[in-house]
Amino acid sequence: MDTEKDLISMATEALQAHTRLTYKLPRASKVHEKACETLDNLRDIKAELDGSNANFDPPQIKRDQFTEFRQLTLMHVPSSVTEEVKVKFNNFVTHAFKDACRRVLCVTLVTCPWYQVTQQERGEMARHNVLFIVYLSHDHQYLAPTNHHDQEKAFVIDEGWLYAVELYHFLHFLSRGRTRCIEVLFAPRSAVVYEDEVWQNLHHLMNYRDLMGLQGSVFSCQGQCTGKIGKKTSKKGPFRMKETATFQDFCNSFRLIHHLYNLVSGLPPLTDIFSIEDLPALAKEGAQMLQRLYKDHDTSKRDIFNIVMKWNEDMKDQLSKFKYTDVNKIDKILQEWQFDVRLEGRTLLQQTLPDDHSNLVSIMERIGGPVGKLEPSQILLVARAGSHMYGLATPESDIDYVVIYAEKTEAVLGTCKALKDIYESRGPTKDFEYGAYEAKVFCEMVLKGSVVILELVFAEGHEYASPVWKALCEKKKAFLTELGIQQFLGLIKNNFHLLNQEKHRGTPRDRKLFYQIFHKMDSVHYMMQGKVPPVRCSGEVKNYIMRIRTQPLDGDLDRDLLNQTAHQKFHELQLELGARTERLKENMDYTLVSDWLISVRGIEERK
Asked: Which of 32, 24, 169 is closest to 101 using CA atoms?
């Protein structure tokens, strides 16, 4: 039986052979396009075999019992959920979420009261039920080095009848006034299938009037109550009913306006069956017409649409001078509560500073802006990038700082919104330029093989490096990957493309494109041999590049000859890459990066 090493060897052989084939195919041909697709597939296979295919680990809920789970959800309304039924629900939830998350915080059976009051049979009342679940993810999931878009896709599970959402996203939606989240937090006792103790604490901390009074809540109710049932035929045209509007759409429209009615009346949010007799005359008429529409499809939808529009306008008038809740007040409560829930009694470890960090403080003051407002303990790295880092600076060279910093862990664990994680100040009028990147962004860029970021790790002699940065850089060789090589090659190809356009001919930019090509090719030579590239140039390489930077482009440095030389060396480099019998790991070690990021947050491991 083939060993793991043999399989990697065979995958490498196939990948290298296909790489050589791809180099020889005409770039503009369809067969080259197919070859590139195959090359990507072969890289994926090799990554799976060499163990570098690990990536963000989203919650994986078990779906093998979903059929029975769905049937249970769509056959009960809150009033029919007995203790026995709750046990069944919770057994399903426990099975589905086992090992997928740290804990489930609440399970709620959500209904549309306006739909329910139009039905007589329990089965019909439950037809559009949603089982709403809020859960707390594991540290390595929540603090993962991945972007917010990918996390939201992974953390929000919407099956129609089941809606499961990670705590951060629930609180984000809640603080923006999403009506469904307010309904879940203040659900009637009969609709609560399960709630954790910390969830009960949140319920006691929040005031439903404050949440309903958020501008986001009011505006979403006003906009969504008509959005599903009407549309404008033109930008300045009248708002007309959609012929495709369903019975359920109309029920939801009335539900949303009813929330606004409760707000101005000082009543709790609409979460349960209500008495039609307690409604204003216009709403009563709407409820009666809905009941008729369900039984008789010939009932005029347009008349119901007109009632929705009229009731919505009435509520707008009553809310015209309404004083909205300060969202910062809500965010503060939610942030402090979420921080405690996520930390779960653990102690945050403080990042240490070197005894003499006065130099760091002076650098931060010199950079100024948002960087100057950070605490020194938040700074992980300050580096002079570009030619200064490469040892190729001239008196005319711009100063470009790169700063890697860590957001305060209290903010990361408690936030209800995406935190700003990149600060840049660039432009010809600046004395010096800088880019400051939060640790999570740095990790994302490392995993993508960013040339600039990899060079920060490979380089030595930075302006300031924290202990936690030095700990990461002790593993420099782990950052040597085939993906990194591909990114370096991509930069070289892009520079060739810009040179061929000749837009910068005769300018310092033209020289820079050339010197970057030779500098990056030198780095690739080191990387392909499994060696960390020096980044800072020396010897013949430095002398040659400095001639390109400072001397007239004639003789052996004639621009056309230089271009020809660069292309020839690049061609030779590609042949060397294709001729290798061994390859690096295809991708960066995700676990190494993820663990480092958690260590940056200073969070103890859960026992």
From this structure: 169
Q: From CA 221, how far away is CA 218, in angstroms rounded?
A: 5
3-state secondary structure string across 102-137: CEEEEEEEECCHHHHCCCCCHHHHCCCCEEEEEEEC
Element (H, E) at 438: strand 433-438
Adjacent-strand bridge partners of 135: 104, 166
- pLDDT tens-digit map of 444-464: 999 999 999 999 999 999 999
The rounded distance, in Å, linking the Cα atoms of 283 and 298 is 21
Amino acid (1-letter code) at residue 574: Q
The pair of three-digit structure tokens given for residue 365, joined into one six-digit string: 């003051």
Nearest alpha-carbon partner for 229 in 240, 243, 245, 248: 245
In 399-538, which ranges are continuous DSSP H helix? 409-414, 439-447, 451-458, 467-473, 482-501, 508-528
Closest CA to 569 of 499, 505, 522: 522
Strand partners of residue 240? 231
- Looking only at the bridges linking them, the beta strands covering 239-241 and 230-232 are antiparallel
Instruction: State the DSSP H helix or E strand holding residue 162, giving kind and residue range, or none if neither.
Output: strand 162-166
The Cα–Cα gap between 275 and 263 comes to 17
- The model's pLDDT over 329-387, given as tens digits with 9 standing for 90+, comes to 999 999 999 999 999 989 888 777 766 678 899 989 989 899 999 999 999 999 999 88
In whole angstroms, what is the distance from residue 141 CA to residue 136 CA?
A: 10
The separation between CA 48 and the C-alpha centre of its own chain, rounded to angstroms, equals: 24
The secondary structure of 172-211 as a DSSP string is HHHHTT-HHHHHHHT--GGGEEEE-HHHHHHHHH--HHHH
Question: Contact, 136 vs 103, CB < 8 A?
Answer: yes
Exposed, middle or buried, 434 (CB in 10 Å: 0-12/13-18/19+)? Answer: buried
Residue 593 has φ and ψ, to the nearest 5°, of: -65, -45
